[in-house]
Design a protein that fits this description.
Number of domains: 4
Distance between the termini: 33 Å
CATH architecture of the largest domain: Up-down Bundle
Structural class: mainly alpha
Number of helices: 22
Shape: globular
Largest sheet: 2 strands, antiparallel
Strand order of the largest sheet: 1-2
Number of strands: 4
CATH topology of the largest domain: Growth Hormone, Chain: A
Order of helices and strands: EEHHHHHHHHHHHHHHHHHHHHHHEE
Radius of gyration: 25 Å
Helix content: over 70%
CATH class of the largest domain: Mainly Alpha
Length: 531
Amino acid sequence: MNAINGIPRGPNPWLIAFAVVVPTFMEVLDTTIANVALRYIAGGLSAAQVDSEWVITSYLAANAVILPMSGWLLTRLGRRNYFLLSIGGFTLSSLMCGVATSLDQLILFRVLQGLAGGGLQPCSQGILLDTFPKEKQGQAMTVFALAALVAPVVGPTLGGYITDNYSWRWIFFINIPVGGLAMLACYALVQDPAYLRAERIESRKSAARFDSIGLGLLVVVMVSWEVVLSKGQEWDWFGDPFYRVQVLAGLFVVCLIGLIARELRHPAPLVNLRPLADRNFAVGAVVVAVAFGILYGQTTALPGMLQTLFGYDATHSGLVLSPAGVFSVMLMPVVAFLLGRGVDARWLIMTGIGLMAVGNYWLSQMTLDIGPWDVVWPRVVLIVGLSLLFAPLNVAVYRNIPPHLRGAAVGLFSLLRNEGGSVGTSLAQTIQQRREQFHLLRLDEFLDTLNPALTEYLAGLRPQLTLLSGDQAAADALGYQIVDNLRQQQATSLAYFDVFWVFAVAAALLVPLVLLMRRSVAEKGAHLAAE
């Protein structure tokens, strides 16, 4: 019987691909779908809106803890068992989130959801790599890109529509039928390859003790990291008078150093860092972290700008972001074709990064005199760039990773992709708020009674405002209020444009880094060569 990677030929690989990508799409969707619903959640559970942010933070922290140790878990449990357990746990915890009666309950269930969902991305990507032969792995990665790229794009739109028209609880309830069907399909189609079955047997014979110290260090590292990213701006970063950020940052640094030292010496490490020794993997990890930081940061900033400056509601601001997802799906077959025709993955990656820089620079040059389509097209350029680099990057980084390290590599890569998104979100919020204060102060330099332009503008307003108010003193006060509103609007818009400019520079700086990667091409449709 013919086999691929130790798996006997059975179901069509594309059926398996569809079955494993659906739950992954569901899990990635949950990283962004709840963002637009926080104020509705806070109102529905009688909680402060600032406290509702823990709904996001708790999920990301739990997800971050489980991702790097997913390689260890799938080796001990078996990848198929771990994948099915993750789907079942994610679906059940989604139900519990939907029926939560208090914010504390919701945060607890979001932690369970993040722990269960953390295994979905590494398992699905590993299954795709093992199911498809090497010459078709580029096509397989384009299928995975549907989950990794399209889900964050449609998340705010779907979340906004559901919360505006139904209830925030349905952003969790929609996972239940999808998760149930995905679990049945994966139970019927997915099997472990021979090398994983052998590794599982060997792991059971191993006398190495469970790395409990590594687990403790990992939990402290990832929880402190996520809390700092989520609450840093609110707590004034290192200016926090209660020293929360300082303490958490110190714990993060000390425990990270301890974790690295521990895992490199442990005979059965919980977090296997050895894939980072491969040049392609290390460079690719940096690229994917920055790329997804830009994606998530822009996905946070654009709706905020549209709602703050242009009066869009959650649904319509999400709709402005959605057309980019259509172009992303349309481009994926083209990327798969180019990879199959022997195009060096590095050139596709660099082209994609360049388009991401162009899209963000385009947004940074906007003014307040724009319509929705003026935002749609720069967003399309960015998402097209990300779609162009994602599948080639996934192909290139795993080329030289041996099968026994593949589970650890996929977990680390997924972690860095997710954490890049967390950093990008935090960075966008921090830049926007800090630069808004900067621009307010700069605009104040010109708003005084000695500025002839200001006095002329106020004099032009006075007659109309006097007619409206019937009092000249009240008219003057209204005039100053109009000027202050314009000042705030201009400062806010310039701050958002600064966010996009920083992301454009960050993308541009990635381009030369890609040249450090080894060349990755498909030769005669048979295999990929790394030189």
